[in-house]
Amino acid sequence: MKTILYPICLCLFIFSGVNAQTKNKYALEAKDFMSKIEQVSDAPIIDVRTAKEFSTGHLKDAKNYDFSAGNFQQQLSAIDKTKPVFVYCLSGARSASAAAQMRAKGFSEVYELQGGLMKWRSQGLPEVGEKSKNLGLSLIQFQNLLNTDKLVLVDFYADWCAPCKKMEPYLKEIATDMEAKVVVLRINADDSKELCKQLGVSALPVLQLYKNQKMVWSNIGFIEKEAVLKQLN
């Protein structure tokens, strides 16, 4: 019986590995994404963020098709499904969802920017468009805010980020309930792009805990309140 099951399991494992590779074939790292765009220079580049986000900076020749807008599918209808298309957002989450929808609609070659513009910016790759006049928190200002006897819990978030929204209520509770011991500093990654780049924040949400101006703990992605409290107590 074991002799029969083993090759079947092995085949399933190999099939799963091949399937995973196929699934990730068009998800490219920032520099590979840029190189591919240069190779297929006439392919459309779709920025699926909001118009407000797009106005603060975007990839050269990109068109803004807001994934959250009601006319997203209508805008896609003008694109040739048989040719390559590039999609991106800030962190890669919305563009991954958009790419999945596009493939389901028959698009044959949809390239995604892994990690989105945050990864792109962290590597100093080119960006065009109107820059936001509000550059957000500077590194010096950030360091000054760490100059306290209390613990400083820094939350890097964005308004569009679902895990960030889920964590926001309990972070506000911590700020109130532990006010004597902890300072909760929430930083909008969209408004403080340069600071995120300098601190190496290239995904969301990110929590960082500082003690005496030194980072003693960090977490990337969603985390429950109880796990954060363990670090604070």
Quick overview:
The protein is of the alpha/beta class.
Determine the fraction of residues in helical runs and give it as a percent range: 40-55%
Mean pLDDT: 87
Strand order of the biggest β-sheet: 1-5-4-2-3
Query: Which runs of at least 5 residues are low in confidence (pLDDT < 50)?
Result: 1-22
Distance N terminus to C terminus? 54 Å
Question: What letter string, H or E per element, gives the SSE order?
Answer: HEHEHEHEHEHHEHEHEEH
Class derived from helix and strand content: alpha/beta
Overall strand count: 9
Write down the overall geometry.
Answer: elongated
- Percent strand: 15-25%
Biggest sheet features: 5 strands, parallel
Radius of gyration: 21 Å
Tally of helical segments: 10
Annotate the secondary structure layout:
Layout: H1 2-23, E1 27-28, H2 30-39, E2 45-47, H3 51-55, E3 62-64, H4 72-76, E4 85-88, H5 93-104, E5 110-113, H6 116-122, H7 139-145, E6 151-157, H8 162-177, E7 182-188, H9 193-199, E8 206-211, E9 214-220, H10 225-232
Parallel strand pairs: 1-5, 2-3, 2-4, 4-5, 6-7
Antiparallel strand pairs: 6-8, 8-9
